[in-house]
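Exercise 7b. Backbone tokens:
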């Protein structure tokens, strides 16, 4: 009996063994594929980059660490990575960039842990004493503000610009106006308010040219019948309005200049003020009373004077343009009225005609 069943068991085992091996291989391949997909997940790759950057940061390789953090942010845009940026920038001595990174972390990474946010606040407080701050007060909106060739945005800027101590080149420009350029030399903890004027006042128009000379008659010795223009008043209405607009333009220009000087004086006093407890004024609207003392009053006075200066310059330009247009209209009217028609007659040599007459305009 056993001998007859032996071939059956061998045959059964011969069929089952390959099937089991196939199932084991398939399961292994499935697990390996799942591991590959997990490793290819951008979030997992970004975490690996952050770990690598943290190790480089501990070793003092700050630029390499910053590169890894940027690669991680490129794979997974989490605002929490701004904290890593800040640490790398501190190591590189780029305090202004570090402060900007911590600002973004605090404003965007709202789900970060309380300890991490407290550390970011502490770093930001220490960095505020190591960087300079500029506030650009421009008389037009939409002008691009750039420092050392790097754009900071367009006016009005939402927040003051933080810069590392040292020399910097400020450029503010807008299409249609000459650019404003100024060289700055900031020190640590210094705050500057910089008034920028891009509107160029229009110069008053020149006096009108002398009228054209009267036309030469054909034959002055002969009797002439002339029909000239009707007598007009000495001062035409267009000319009166042109002179009035020009005078008003000068008044508006004077107003703009005076208010601009007042704005510059208020901003200078704001920059020089040392109120308690901060010991300085801050143009940042998030700072309580802008630092205390007369800071708020000086800043409001400077801004109000700057706005009035803008009104004066714009009004002067508009009135000056109106004056020019009125002078042109008056000039054309004078040219049209200066045209005359003259009839001149002289004796003719032909026997059939006694005289020859000609009309000139």
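Sequence design result:
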């Amino acid at each position: 009996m056993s001998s007859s069943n032996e071939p059956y068991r061998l045959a059964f085992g011969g069929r089952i063994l390959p099937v089991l091996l196939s199932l084991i291989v398939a399961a292994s391949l499935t697990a390996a594929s799942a591991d590959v997909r997990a490793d290819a997940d951008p979030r997992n790759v970004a975490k690996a980059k952050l770990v690598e950057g943290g190790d480089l940061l501990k070793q003092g390789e700050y630029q390499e660490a910053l590169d890894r953090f940027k690669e991680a942010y490129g794979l997974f845009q989490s605002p929490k990575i701004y904290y890593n940026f800040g640490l790398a920038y501190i190591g590189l001595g780029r305090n202004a960039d570090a402060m900007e990174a911590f600002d973004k972390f605090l404003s965007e990474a709202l789900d970060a842990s309380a300890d991490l946010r407290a550390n970011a606040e502490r770093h930001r407080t220490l960095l505020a004493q190591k960087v300079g701050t500029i506030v650009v007060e421009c008389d037009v909106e939409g002008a691009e503000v750039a420092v050392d060739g790097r754009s900071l945005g367009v006016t009005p800027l939402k927040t003051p610009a933080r810069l590392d101590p040292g020399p910097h080149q400020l450029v503010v420009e807008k299409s249609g106006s000459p650019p404003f350029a100024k060289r700055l030399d900031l020190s640590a903890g210094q705050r500057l308010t910089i008034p920028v004027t891009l509107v160029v006042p229009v110069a008053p128009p020149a006096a009108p040219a002398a009228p054209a000379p009267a036309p030469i008659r054909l034959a002055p010795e002969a009797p002439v019948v002339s029909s000239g223009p009707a007598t007009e008043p000495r001062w035409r209405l267009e000319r009166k309005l042109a002179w009035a607009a020009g005078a008003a333009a000068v008044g508006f220009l004077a107003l703009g200049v005076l208010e601009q000087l007042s704005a510059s004086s208020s901003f200078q006093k704001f920059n020089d003020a040392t109120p308690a407890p901060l010991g300085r004024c801050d143009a940042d609207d998030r700072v309580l009373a802008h630092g205390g003392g007369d800071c708020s009053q000086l800043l409001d006075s400077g801004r109000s004077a700057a706005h009035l200066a803008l009104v004066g310059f714009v009004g002067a330009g508009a009135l000056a343009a109106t004056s020019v247009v009125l002078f042109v209209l008056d000039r054309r009217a004078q040219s049209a009225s200066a045209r005359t028609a003259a009839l001149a007659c002289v004796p003719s040599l032909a026997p059939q005609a006694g005289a020859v007459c000609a009309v000139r305009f």
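Instructor comment: The beta strands are 132-138, 144-147, 150-154, 161-163, 166-173, 180-186, 191-196, 224-227, 341-347, 355-360. The chain has eight helices and ten strands.
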